[in-house]
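Sample intake sheet
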Amino acid sequence: GPEARARRAAADLARRPLRHPEARSHILTSPFHVPPRWFAAFNPKERELVRGPAGLTIRYRTGRGAAVRRLQRAARILERAGFDEESVGQVRELIGWLRAFPPDSVVELDYGGAARLFGEGDLAIDETGADVAASLRALERGDFDAAGEHYSRVAARWSHAQGLTFAS
């Protein structure tokens, strides 16, 4: 029956890394929220408001080369601003993950199911990518107050969604 097929599929999936150690996921997921560092790979102008089968969502798309360059810049800015190795390391891990794909790849950030946690009006005015970019620019020029202001908007916007991560 369906349960037996589901168990066989799960077992096959679990064995896949052993049979194909070179295979890597083409998708990074985060339950209930989009990690702010992911936005650093995109130009805020690459933001698209998209209506899909599940309703309104937000998507960003860019080339892999541009994403890697932007993340390298973000890592340098965070490092120079004195952020801890864990924060900088998470950005570097993302760079390493992206570099494994062909240079002409397209990188997409999509709110996916997290979009359902916001009303359509909130999605329409969601500028998380612009706030992350503005926070990085402020850090780059040493304006920690402005950087904190922009980042606190991101944190406030996503606090409900992030809270669900810890509640489940």
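Comment: The longest strand covers residues 55-63. The chain has a mean pLDDT of 84.
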